[in-house]
Structures are given as structure tokens and as C-alpha cells.
Specification:
The protein is an alpha/beta fold. It contains 7 helices and 16 strands. It has a single domain, classed as Metallo-dependent phosphatases (Purple Acid Phosphatase, chain A, domain 2, 4-Layer Sandwich), CATH 3.60.21. It binds zinc ion (ZN).
């Protein structure tokens, strides 16, 4: 599909690059506008916050992941127009869901070291499935009674008082969710009842004029989830509940009652996509680690998303690659 501009056919990539250039960015893979009207007609609005959404970092001692994450942090902070905050999207370390205590400590130590040395920006953290310690009790060798079992280790590392929360920034409300719902030694993506009630009350308590951005590790709604594996091989598309929120229907019904929910940010799939549905834009924002530090994951290069939030509830976004090649098998 091509767009038309002043009678000249514009390729999709050129259009994306032009949109990203409007944000002062280059190397963008997917860029777009969340204004109700085209960005150019939205003059008069004021940008109130630029954030970098860095998801699926999967920090580990192997494959030069620490150097890669360092490169991503330096890249974001040295943009000509740098972000004011970094929002992490979960899967911050490679994995502690199925890892023992020593391996988990090694990964979080690495996390602390890189952030302390390389990040001078404020951070908002989201917890991913791989950041939850020992829910696979068999593989992790945990009993479940360890003081740091489950979310607690990540919460301590990230300085979080709760696994989900709302924070107000620059006139927007940011709601950070916990997507990972335990099922035996594994998980699915859904909000437990307590969290869904909290989300319902939080949205009800948010002034209608306050735009809302929702951050979840696992996408609530995603197009690229269809391409995460060969999941059509049996003749039907199958998107497992662990790839996309299995309670998406309930969440979109809730969002439909709150027109100020504008934007949802996620990761988990390590692919980039944008879904616009019933007035909400759902961005799946690739992975800082690309294919878990092995290179690109399908068409998705290692990168992060720059998101501009405006005072009128509109936004712009661009996925920015930082040139990291990874260490292939
Ligand atoms: Zn991941």
C-alpha cells in the first residue's frame, strides 16, 4: 500500500521515515501519529513528554548483552532531542522464571551495574514474565517460600512498592500493569481479579480530561502475535494466551467506557506493530535485545520506541534502531 503526497507516490518506508523525521529521529521502522486529526492539522498542541519505551532487554552475561544495553542507553540519551524518562517494558533480565538463585542474582547484579553506570534519566519500570523468580519451581529449584520468590526480587531491584500502579506525569496518567498470571509452573497473560478491579477503579477515578497511557509487558491486542511462530500450521490461526492478553475482550470493553485511554505500550513479542481499535492505539514495541541478543528477530532489529505525548491527548511514535548486530549462534 502506498500513500500519496502532492501527487507523488510515497513508499511505506519513506512515509515512515518522513513521520520519524518529524520527530527529529532517523532509523525508524514504524512511525505514526495518534492525533485524531493529521499531525499537521494539530498545530497548537504542545508536547509535554518524550519517553523512550525500552522493552525486552533480557540482560544476561552472554552474547555481549551488557554492551548492547549500554549502546541502547547511550543511543537514547544522546539523541538530539533526548527522552525525559525511560519506561522499561518488562523482561529486563534474560530469565529468572526458571532460574536458580545464583543465576538470578548474576542477572540482577548486571542490571544494577549497567543502569548505575549508563542511565542518568528517571525510569518507570514494568515487570515481565521473565522477571518473576521461580514460578517454574521444578526448573528453578525453588520451594516457593523463599523471601524473594515471585515478584518480590524484581520489585526490590526496581524499587517498586506494588507490581502494578498508576503514576501521573506531565498531565498524562501512566498505568503500569502486571500481565503475568500464574498457571502451575507456567503462566498466561491476564489481569487477576484484584488487579482488574483496581484498574476499573483507577480509570473511574481519572478525570475525563486526563489522557491515559497503559503499559503492559504482554500486549493486550497485537497483530504481530500472529507471526510469533508458525501458529497457523494446523489450518487455523492460534495465538496462545501467553502471547496476547487472554482477557483482551474484557479490557477493551473497560477501555470503551473511558475515552481518555489513548495509548497502550507493550513488548513480549520482539516484533513491532500498531493496532488501532475503538479509539485506542496498541503499540507492540519490538525488543532492545532483538532476537535475545542473537541479531534481528524476523524483520525486527534491536531497538526501542520513542513516544511523544501531547497536552491534547495525542501522541507520536517511532521505533528507533541503534545498530546492534548481536551475537548469532
Ligand atoms: Zn521477551
Amino acid at each position: 500500500m502506498n500513500g500519496e503526497r502532492e501527487g507523488v507516490a510515497v513508499s511505506r518506508r519513506e512515509a515512515i521515515l518522513a513521520a520519524a523525521a518529524g520527530m527529529g529521529l532517523s532509523g525508524a521502522v514504524l512511525a505514526g501519529s495518534g492525533a485524531a486529526v493529521p499531525a499537521r492539522a494539530a498545530a497548537g498542541r504542545e508536547r509535554v513528554l518524550r519517553l523512550a519505551h525500552m522493552t525486552d532487554i533480557h540482560l544476561q552475561p552472554e552474547r555481549r548483552a551488557d554492551e548492547g544495553f549500554t549502546a541502547a542507553l547511550r543511543h537514547a540519551q544522546s539523541l538530539k532531542d533526548p527522552p525525559q524518562v525511560i519506561v522499561t517494558g518488562g523482561d529486563l533480565i534474560m530469565d529468572c522464571f526458571a532460574a536458580d538463585e545464583a543465576r538470578t542474582r548474576t542477572q540482577w547484579d548486571l542490571w544494577k551495574r549497567v543502569l548505575r553506570a549508563e542511565c542518568s534519566l528517571p525510569l518507570e519500570h514494568c515487570i515481565g514474565n521473565h522477571d518473576i523468580w521461580g514460578w517454574n519451581q521444578k526448573k528453578s529449584g525453588t520451594s516457593g517460600s523463599e523471601p524473594l520468590h515471585g515478584h518480590k526480587w524484581a520489585m526490590e531491584m526496581l524499587g517498586l512498592g506494588s507490581r502494578y500502579r498508576a503514576v501521573d506525569r506531565a498531565g498524562w496518567r501512566m498505568i503500569v500493569l502486571d500481565s503475568t498470571f500464574r498457571v502451575g509452573d507456567s503462566y498466561t497473560a491476564r489481569l487477576d481479579e484484584e488487579q482488574f478491579d483496581w484498574l476499573s477503579r483507577t480509570l473511574a477515578d481519572t478525570p475525563r480530561a486526563t489522557p491515559v497511557v497503559v503499559v503492559s509487558h504482554i500486549p493486550i491486542l497485537s497483530a504481530s502475535a500472529y507471526f510469533d511462530g508458525d501458529n497457523e500450521k494446523d489450518g487455523d490461526w492460534k495465538v496462545p494466551g501467553a502471547w496476547m492478553h487472554i482477557d483482551a475482550r474484557r479490557i477493551k470493553d473497560l477501555f470503551a467506557r473511558h475515552a481518555n485511554v489513548r495509548l497502550c505500550l507493550s513488548g513480549h513479542i520482539h516484533l513491532v506493530d500498531r493496532v488501532d481499535y475503538l479509539g485506542v492505539t496498541y503499540l507492540c514495541n519490538g525488543a532492545v535485545s532483538g532476537a535475545w541478543w542473537k541479531g534481528s528477530n524476523q524483520e525486527c532489529d534491536a531497538g526501542y520506541c520513542v513516544v511523544d505525548l501531547y497536552d491534547d491527548g495525542s501522541f507520536e511514535h517511532a521505533y528507533v534502531t541503534y545498530g546492534w548486530q548481536g551475537v548469532p549462534d
